[in-house]
Amino acid sequence: MKRVVPMVALLLVVALLVWPTAGKAEMYVEGYMGASFASPVGEKLDMATPGGAGTNGGWRGSGDFDGDVDPAFLGGGKLGYWFVKEGFLGYNYPDWAKYFGVYFDLSYHRIPVRRDDLAFQRFQPLPVINFINNNISMDGTALTLAFMFAGRYGFLPDSEVPFGRLQPYVAVGPAILISSQRPTIHLNVAGNPDGLGMDSRYQTSTDVALAVETGLRYLAFKNVSLDLSFKYRFAQPQYRFEMIDSRAEHFDVDYNPTYHLFSVQVGAAYHF
Known about the structure:
The protein is mainly beta. It has 1 helix and 13 strands; from the N terminus they run H-E-E-E-E-E-E-E-E-E-E-E-E-E.
């Protein structure tokens, strides 16, 4: 969490550079919900007893798994504005500015990694030992705060909405992804019919991420719009877990996945 302060400060500086004039634009607040998806997040995880293999009775190993992620419910909201002459505190922008805007986007969802086979190998101390018929699952969450730069175009203009009621848009921007994971591992150990169950507490990673979104907004009324959008986020969190097995032995586990997060959402916004 120590990296949160400089990341938030950076986003606020960017926002403040825009805010003095952007506050005089067409503003809107939106709530949305949808479904999140992710490409497989499986990566090698490294496991060692505290102090590593050099300690008395210590050992070190690594494991690989696919890391397929189940879909999950997503919820969030946006606060944004377009640089137009109409609307709340309208300002005399140049005409081309109406095609551009900015918004904050806050969303939350789970990252549930389904139960999967884990190929695990202990390589220190020698001899090398392969543990077979192992499995792993994870339960995680993701909270994303993004500052997005957006462009749009208008279709179906009329007297009430001169820009156009149908507005496709695309946006890109930096984000802060606060994610957590909690792994559960079962190792099949020769001579132990129950194997070794290993568990951990939730661990959190705060990282700079990239966010991209494209969508289609329709103004059903002058001040009310409906929004259908697709979102992508990229981040590379780093987790360190302290795991305890069924024999009360402790292990340090490092896991550094790459997240490709996708979501589809529908929302409703009020413009003022």
